[in-house]
Amino acid sequence: MTTHHLRTDLLYDPAALFWLDVRGNIARIGMSPLVQESTGSFVAVQLAAAGATVAKGESFGSTEAEKHVGQLKAPVSGKLLRCNERVQETPRLINTDPYGEGWLVEIDMTNAAAELPQLVQGEAEVKLFFEIEIKKYQDKGWLAEK
């Protein structure tokens, strides 16, 4: 799929392909390698300010990449605790280190019990989900055949 290893220990939002690293009630959120591979290099990231409250599906920022400009839709509801200033200064971190320095925000979840079960989780489920997504992306010409 990508030059990046797919982390199966994380949760994934099937709608926007964000990854979530959940620790207690805090979720660190970033973009999966599939998104960064299909959109090209990120050139701009704008994130809502820490302290903002977002509901699942609401915008918490926007991105601009070589092949896409769009809103970032929250995969869970909660209060933004931290926004990654480094990724705003160097958007390419989403491409070069999507699971590390390329994270976007940390959210204190307010509806975890209802929202987390809607995410893809578990090694087998994550692998299967990404196999299906990669096939869709290839069929649409969004990824080069390998």
Describe this structure in words.
- The protein has 146 residues and is α+β, with helices and mostly antiparallel strands.
- The chain has a single domain, classed as Beta Barrel (OB fold (Dihydrolipoamide Acetyltransferase, E2P)).
- Helices cover 25% and strands 31% of the residues.
- It is built from 5 helices and 9 strands, in the order βββαβββββααβαα.
- It has a 6-stranded antiparallel beta sheet. A 3-stranded antiparallel beta sheet has the order 4-6-7.
- A hairpin with a 5-residue loop joins β1 and β2.
- The mean pLDDT is 90.
Classify the secondary structure makeup into a structural class: alpha+beta
**Global shape:** globular
* Terminal-residue CA separation: 8 Å
Task: Please give the order of strands in the largest beta sheet.
Answer: 1-2-3-9-8-5
Q: What is the highest CATH level, the class?
A: Mainly Beta
Mean pLDDT: 90
Cα Rg: 14 Å
